[in-house]
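testing teh design pipeline on a random one, pls ignore if ur not involved
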C-alpha cells in the first residue's frame, strides 16, 4: 500500500491497526483552550516532549487561533511565531513528524522549508478563492464525481472531453510544488446548507478536486470533517455520528473534537473540564473509522484510543 510521505524523507506514521494521535501545540496568545501557555520555546519543547512520551505520533503546530471571533494575523506575524518553534522542535526531535496548522500558503511554504512535514489546512485548500471561484470549483467537483460514477461508455462511443479545472488556490499550488502531504478539513464561509450531508460531502470533494488538479497524489491526502467549523452543535454531533460517510470517500480521516464548545454545550462544562466528553468522541470516531485523532490531552486520550482499538480488534486482539 502506498502511504503519505514527507518532502524531507522523514517517515510518517502509517494509518491502520492503531489509531494515530496528533498532539496540539499552539504558539498563540488567544487559542480557545490553551492560548498563551506556550509563551517560550522552552515551554513548547517541554510540552512536546510530554506529548511524545504519552504516545503522540506526530505534533501539530499552530500560530493563529481559529476559534470563532479570533483576530486574523498576517502571514508575516504567523511566521514569526511558528518558524522559531519549528527550529526548536527540530533541534530537540529531528525525526518526529511535524504538521503546520495553517490556511495561508505563504506560512505553509515557509514552515515546510523550515522542517515541517505536512500541511493541516482548516480551509481544505479553498482559502484565497472568491465566491465565484468557489462556486466554479464545486461545479467542477460535482461534474467529476458524476463522470466517475456514470456507466462505462461502449467502445464505439467517443470519449468525453476532459474537464478544464478553474484556477488553483495558492495552497494547492504550494502543496503540489513542494510535494507535501495535506489534511483537508471541511469548512465553508457560512452555515447556509441546502442539504447538510450532500453539501458537506460536496465541499470535501471540492477540496479533493483542488488537490488532484494541482497534482497532489491521493496517497498524500487526508480528510477532516471540521468538527466545530461552520456547524452548529447538532451538525457537529451529526458529522461524528455518521463519520463513516466521510470515511467512505476512501481517504484516511482525522477527527479533532478536543475541548471544543460542542462538548461543553452537551455537558455544561468549562473548556478545562471536557476530558470525559472528549474521550467519548474519540471512541465513537474510532468506531466509525477515524484513522487519527487530534488532541490536547494526549495521556488521557491515548488510553481511550487504545481501548477503542482493542474493542475493534475483538477476537484478533493480542495483548502487548
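output:
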Amino acid at each position: 500500500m502506498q502511504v503519505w510521505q514527507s518532502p524531507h524523507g522523514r517517515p510518517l506514521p502509517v494509518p491502520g491497526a492503531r489509531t494515530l494521535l496528533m498532539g496540539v501545540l499552539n504558539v498563540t496568545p488567544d487559542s480557545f483552550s490553551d492560548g498563551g501557555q506556550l509563551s517560550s520555546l522552552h515551554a513548547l519543547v517541554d510540552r512536546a516532549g510530554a506529548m511524545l512520551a504519552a504516545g503522540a505520533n506526530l505534533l501539530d503546530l499552530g500560530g493563529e487561533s481559529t476559534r470563532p471571533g479570533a483576530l486574523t494575523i498576517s502571514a508575516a506575524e504567523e511566521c514569526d511565531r511558528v518558524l522559531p518553534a519549528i527550529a526548536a522542535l527540530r533541534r530537540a526531535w529531528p525525526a518526529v513528524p511535524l504538521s503546520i496548522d495553517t490556511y495561508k500558503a505563504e506560512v505553509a511554504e515557509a514552515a515546510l522549508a523550515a522542517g515541517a512535514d505536512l500541511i493541516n489546512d482548516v480551509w481544505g485548500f479553498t482559502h484565497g478563492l472568491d465566491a465565484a471561484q468557489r462556486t466554479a470549483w464545486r461545479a467542477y467537483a460535482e461534474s467529476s464525481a458524476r463522470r466517475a460514477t456514470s456507466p462505462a461508455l461502449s467502445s464505439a462511443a467517443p470519449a468525453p472531453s476532459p474537464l478544464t479545472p478553474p484556477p488553483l488556490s495558492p495552497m494547492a499550488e504550494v502543496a503540489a510544488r513542494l510535494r507535501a502531504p495535506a489534511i483537508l478539513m471541511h469548512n465553508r464561509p457560512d452555515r447556509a446548507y441546502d442539504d447538510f450531508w450532500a453539501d458537506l460531502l460536496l465541499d470535501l470533494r471540492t477540496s479533493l478536486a483542488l488537490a488532484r488538479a494541482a497534482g497532489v497524489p491521493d496517497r498524500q491526502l487526508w480528510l477532516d470533517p471540521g468538527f466545530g467549523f461552520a456547524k452548529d452543535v447538532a451538525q457537529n454531533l451529526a458529522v461524528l455520528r455518521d463519520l463513516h460517510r466521510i470515511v467512505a470517500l476512501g481517504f484516511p480521516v482525522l477527527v479533532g473534537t478536543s475541548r471544543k464548545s460542542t462538548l461543553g454545550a452537551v455537558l455544561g462544562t468549562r473548556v478545562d473540564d471536557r476530558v470525559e466528553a472528549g474521550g467519548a468522541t474519540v471512541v465513537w470516531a474510532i468506531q466509525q473509522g477515524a484513522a487519527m485523532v487530534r488532541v490536547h490531552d494526549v495521556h488521557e486520550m491515548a488510553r481511550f484510543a487504545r481501548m477503542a482499538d482493542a474493542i475493534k480488534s475483538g477476537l484478533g486482539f493480542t495483548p502487548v
